[in-house]
């Protein structure tokens, strides 16, 4: 990966948590509010539904020049010409994912421990999604990562690190000290009555530590 | 596709319907009974579970020289170096699937009408899975294809045709007259107490029209 990515505010979608019924609307508002990357996550839909949805979302992200990452489904990422894929620990092995996508496509990997982080880097990950930082409704079974562990991972790996899991306006500013590359957010953007405002505030809190 | 495939008895897996707890055992017995192709279908497992399962099954199909096809998940087919993918009408569009897998990998497409069959052929399908021929517990919502429609599809397309859906020892011989290339079978093999015997009988019924 020679291309540079801006991980500052990384929106991860979840259709079950949306404050609007239309994902395209939510994504567009989030981008207008300052989201720098978008990851499409869809665990319930059929492959065709996920594909069709991805095609529609890519038109929006392309228009704004925002990278689009597909969660888990490498075939759909390849099919729509996404900028990358994000792989969890229960998805394909990261090293296998890398062989399928080649060098040009971004590979993100979820990690909840230092050993997973180091393994992911070794397997060819371009960035890490570290979490869950807090308990969350999105992934209730997720293992919690302490701020100390996040710092340790950040100090150990050389690839970009994004924190994920329960990040919202109440804690976003606390991540400034971790010197990570960005925050990945689901409900604190997509479930909010004003998606654009929510994204703007989170970005400001992370970058400047000040509340509106 | 220049390679020749033998579609005569095409096993489609379903872990929920198995008479044994171990899929590898079931597949191996089915191959010993005369199964000529295997399709791994897995709608419930995580990507990692499906991948791990596919790797294990491929060791068996490779040992017997039987082609292995992956249902829906093109990424997993690419990851394990499967012989092909099988795409249903709610999976990725067949033409898109073809662009991802290239020319060398087999592309099977499900069709339940003449128009779907012709479209699939146009989109680059190497063979068709036509059905459901009968009501089945595996896909209860499936549209039923009459024997007349199967004959019509067989007479219209130039690619191999396999019938699927509720095919068992009671009706396998009736497909001889359709001059199709094979029968795709789920529960009539995988749910049987003696998987090898069941496969042998189905093959004989389809090829010779005689019961054991």
Summary keywords:
homodimer; 212 residues; alpha/beta; TIM Barrel; 8-stranded parallel barrel; 38% helix; 16% strand; globular
Would you summarize the structure shown here?
The structure is a homodimer of 212-residue chains. Chain A has 212 residues and is of the alpha/beta class.
What does this structure look like?
2 copies of one chain form a homodimer. Chain A has 8 helices and 8 strands. Chain A has 212 residues and is α/β, with parallel strands linked by helices. Chain A has a single domain (9-108, 127-208), classed as Aldolase class I (TIM Barrel, Alpha-Beta Barrel), CATH 3.20.20. Chain A has an 8-stranded parallel beta barrel, surrounded by 7 helices. In chain A, helix 3 (74-80) links the parallel strand 3 and strand 4. In chain A, helix 1 (23-32) runs parallel beside helix 8. The longest helix of chain A has 18 residues, at 47-64. Chain A is globular. The first copy, chain A, starts with 8 loop residues before the first strand and ends with a helix. The interface between A and B is medium-sized, with 21 and 21 residues.
Write the layout of secondary structure elements.
2 copies of one chain form a homodimer.
Chain A: E1 9-12, H1 23-32, E2 37-40, H2 47-64, E3 68-71, H3 74-80, E4 84-87, H4 94-101, E5 106-111, H5 114-122, E6 127-130, H6 147-156, E7 161-164, E8 182-185, H7 187-190, H8 195-208
Parallel strand pairs in A: 1-2, 1-8, 2-3, 3-4, 4-5, 5-6, 6-7, 7-8
Helix pairs in contact in A: 1-2, 1-8, 2-3
